[in-house]
Every structure is written in structure tokens, then in C-alpha cells.
């Protein structure tokens, strides 16, 4: 048995080594134009490129309207790109449709700013957590319920919350449920669009710590969207700064925060209290 364990171990590390060389997400010259009128085109995202290594967090920071959410929505295939490519695990997903797109959707999940609007107030927490499993016909009803209880453990909420409804939870607890639901299908990537912006600073801190623990435990990769530099500083490996649809600077967290190269980044940093 010991020998087999060693064989499994080396096969696994070999696989991981070859996979680790390909970033989980690569974005190449992504562009989005919105036609606002017969002769008015808004360049919401202009030739944005970056990549996210497996198990890491890439954050996009910038003020409201700078194109952060549009970029996230194109990567998540909720919005069609005007130009450019998105590679997921080395595969071009820009033009996927049908069954391959449906399969891909299991591999990334979104968490938004306002969990209340995305959690059906009539459903119990248990049903909310079982729903993704039901949609993909994964497991029996009993297995789905057991999985819902495990998901609740993962986000550190007591199991008796299973019978509650979203209205009986605080904002931070609702965001924990939204994260638990996002984890139900065991995705590789979480796209977190302003996930803590609606929460008090002390609750923000708890959710960011939870996200950090989940990343370490499950090897999750995050694309984090935030207008808040303090949040980004806490959670990121790499950071991209967007201004008016352009990613004006990107680098490791310490590069961007300690040695900003672009005047706009310095301006943002100077505004932190
Ligand atoms: P952010 O998330 O950084 O606040 P967004 O990506 O939501 O910015 O928006 C970038 C720009 O694109 C904004 O000027 C916004 O008004 C515009 N925009 C976003 N979605 C649409 C849309 N569906 N139609 C027209 N304009 C849009
Ligand atoms: Mg946004």
C-alpha cells in the first residue's frame, strides 16, 4: 500500500507540474465596444491582457465605470467580446457554445456584490445549496443534502442554518451562502465581482479571510474585482489597474502597491486614508 501511495503521489505531482506551467486563465487583447447610438461607440474595454496562474488571485482595481465588470463578464462568457481571446486551461473559450460551453460553466462560478439579490428569498438555505447539484443531476437527493451540510461547514456556518431562509441571515452570512453555493460544483475559478463592497469593514475582513482559507485548502483560483485598494491589497497575488477601459498597469501586489509606475496608480494610492 505504501508503494502504491508513492506511485500515486508521483503521478499526481507530475500531472500538476505539467499543468502548473499553463495559467488557468489567459486573457489576450480583450476588447468590448458598446454601440450607444448611430455614431457613438463606447470603448468599455480596450485591449486588456493578463493571465492568472492556478491557485492565485488576480485583482482588477479601478474606479466605477473603468470596465472591470465588463472584463469579468467577458471572461465568464456572460458578455461576448468584440475582439480578443480568453483561454481557460489553455483552451480558447471565446467561441464555445452548446454542450462544451455548458461543461465549461461548471468550472467557474460568480459571486456578486449583493448576495441578497442572487439568493431566492423563498428558498431554504438547503435548497439554495442543492440547486447547482440538481441542475447538473449530481447525486441522489440524500447525497445532495449531505453535500449542502458540508458546504455550510466549509463557510463556517452552523448546520441548523440549512432550514433558514436568506432573509433571516446577516449580510456577511448571506455572502457566505453565496460563496458556498459557488463551491457546490467544485469549480477551478471564482469570479468575485465586488464581493465585500456591501459589507461592514469588520465583516469584509472575515469574508476575505474565508476566501483566503478556501483558496489554500481547495487550490481555487480567483479573479477579484474591486474598487477598494485596501481589499485588493489583502487578497491579491497580482493586480491590474484599470482606467477608462485600459489596464494602465499590472504587476505583483507589492510592485503595484510599493512601486507604482503609472501616475494613475499613484493617484489611487494617495487617496487611501
Ligand atoms: P466597472 O465595473 O469598472 O464599474 P463596467 O464594466 O460595469 O465598469 O462598465 C464600463 C463602461 O461600460 C461604463 O461606462 C458602463 O456604463 C458601460 N456599460 C457596461 N455595460 C453596458 C451595456 N450593457 N450597454 C452599454 N454600456 C455598458
Ligand atoms: Mg462593476
TrEMBL record:
This is Dipeptide ABC transporter ATP-binding protein. GO terms for molecular function: ATP binding. Keywords: ATP-binding, Nucleotide-binding, Transport. The keyword ATP-binding applies. The keyword Glycoprotein does not apply. Belongs to the ABC transporter superfamily. Residues 25-269 form the ABC transporter domain. The chain holds residues 280 to 552 of 556 of the full protein.
